[in-house]
Amino acid sequence: MTRVAIIGAGPCGLAQLHAFVSDKTVDGTATPELVCYEKQSDWGGLWNYTWRTGLDQHGEPCHGSMYRYLWSNGPKECLEFADYTFEEHFGTPIGSFPPREVLYDYIIGRAKRSGIRRFIRFNHVVRSVSRSAQSGRFVVCVHDHETETTSTEEFDYVVVASGHFSTPNMPHYPGYETYGGTLIHAHDFRDAAQFADQNVMIIGSSYSAEDIASQCWKYGARSVTCSSRSGPMGFDWPDGITEKPILSHVDGRTVHFVDGSSAEIDAIISCTGYLHHFPYMDDSLRLVTTNRLATSMLYRGVVFQPDNAVMYLGMQDQWYTFNMFDVQAWYARDVILGRIDLPSAPEQARWIEKQQAIEDGIEDDYGLIDYQGVYTQDLLEQSDYPTFSTAQVSAMFKDWKKHKKQSIIGYRDNGHTSPITGTVAPVHHTAWVDALDDSLESFLATGS
User: Fold this and answer.
1) Of 22, 30, 379, 384, which has the fewest Cβ atoms less than 10 A away?
2) What is the per-residue pLDDT across 65-100, written as a single tens digit (0 to 9) for each?
3) Do 28 and 159 share a structural domain?
4) Is residue 447 assigned to a domain?
5) How many CB atoms neighbour CB 305 within 10 A?
6) Are residues 39 and 152 in the same domain?
7) Is 97 among the domain residues?
8) End residue of a domain, out of 238, 270, 302
9) How far apart are CA 253 and CA 262, in angstroms?
């Protein structure tokens, strides 16, 4: 029997398992033998919130980058599973920007319905993946923290679904060595209330920078200063949040910027992205790419071009998320099941080069949204994944961007339309800026 190893039980790994069990043989079992290795004690990946930072209880690097008061920073309608809607899960329409506990509940709801937990080995850390010279199969070496034993198994295919938001990219600036305040990467940010009454500086200009800046302001920071190499984020920030050019150096708690100005800062939070880091993969099997929409080395953004028996899911810079992971998982499944004939290695390389050239020629975010929508639609048409309107999703992303320009603090106070059910989400009962309780119970309550 064909054996498939899946590394990670977060949204991508769960999507892959779900793809297989959604394609059952007559006797009701998944066609290949599936083994999913998950280093954490429970499923959900980044959505499995932990208070821990640095190393976990086993001495492994903490996987999670999730923070306590995170709310979805994009419309939930843009990531909705086509075969399991929010309305089906919660039994009623809910707001478009749920907090992390609500999104986690939704992700796990489908996983429970699918019955895929039986395939997952928790507290199992993959140490190495290589090709056997003898058998030609993949040898996966895994450490089980429950028994503190290490073992190896052989597989015909490997699906890497461990994500790329766990290994911080932490640039250095002169003076960091003697900085007198708190200095962390967003990976280790957990609670905005920790920075109440402090002068906080955020480095970066992407989603985590804009959201952590807003979080710190919301939960009482004295001031928030945003600094980035790529220039200002350009939002209409409320009083208390300002933007500066990139810092040049740090002297004690004084941060100096390249325009000659300076500020006294109590905490620096580096929202500077993550590295694609797969130390357990053999050199010949390891994906090497920057964070972009058209990833290097991946045909159709999924199949590892140097070795087509290795698949990587969710490795793109992302507008689309859960629904894109789903169509990638369906595509990977059908490659593994022999339903999709892959072209030659040179043709795969040319496809990757062409896609990267197209991405490089796009001038703005709206074009990038359209690009990823076309990419997702292409995969959608190659499998039996339930269809949904990528055009509607892309249009929603563009509306969302406009809402953020209108109010970076208030954009979550809008409702969007589900491309699956056609339901318009109700506006949440409490404006985001006033919603200090982010629990599932509070969010789902019918009144303030």
Assistant:
1) 384
2) 999 999 999 999 999 999 999 999 999 999 999 999
3) yes
4) no
5) 20
6) yes
7) yes
8) 270
9) 10
Q: For residue 90, is it left (φ>0), alpha (ψ between -120 and 50) or beta?
A: alpha
Judgement on whether residues 358 and 371 belong to the same structural domain of the protein: yes
322, containing H or E segment: helix 322-336
Number of neighbours of residue 54 by Cβ within 10 angstroms: 9
**Residue 191 corresponds to which amino acid?**
D
Report which of 231, 191, 190, 227 is spatially closest to residue 209, judged by C-alpha positions. Answer: 227
Summarize pLDDT for 220-264 with one digit per residue, the tens.
999 999 999 988 898 999 999 999 999 999 999 999 999 999 999
Pairing mode, strands 124-131 and 138-144: antiparallel
Residues 6+ apart with CB under 8 A from 400: 74, 75, 78, 411, 416
Question: Any idea how long the chain is?
Answer: 448
What is the residue whose two structure tokens read 């496809």? Answer: 351
pLDDT attached to residue 29: 63
Q: Which long-range contacts (CB under 8 A, 24 or more apart) does 173-179 make?
A: 173/247, 173/248, 173/249, 173/250, 174/248, 174/249, 174/250, 175/249, 175/250, 175/251, 176/250, 178/250, 178/252, 179/250, 179/252, 179/253, 179/268
Helices (H), 22-141: 86-90, 100-114
